From TrEMBL:
This is DUF4169 family protein. It comes from Caulobacter sp. 73W. It comes from the Bacteria. Residues 1-24 are annotated as: Disordered. Pfam families: DUF4169.
Length: 59
């Protein structure tokens, strides 16, 4: 015979797991330090300047 489970506890456990997965995703998306963000921004700006300087024609 199958094991009897409390459906309310099962529902809450499922919601908790979904919340943990969302938290991992949010940490990856928003959990960067200000120094890391500014470093990436500076690198992108430097790359744009280098590409602009390498143009043959200024249009």
């Amino acid at each position: 015979m199958a094991e009897v489970i409390n459906l309310n506890k099962a529902r809450k456990a499922k919601a908790k797991e979904a919340g943990k997965a969302a938290a991992v995703e949010n940490r990856a998306r928003f959990g960067r330090a200000k120094a890391d963000k500014s470093l990436d921004k500076a690198r992108a700006k430097k790359l744009d300047r280098a590409l602009d300087q390498a143009k043959l024609h200024k249009d």
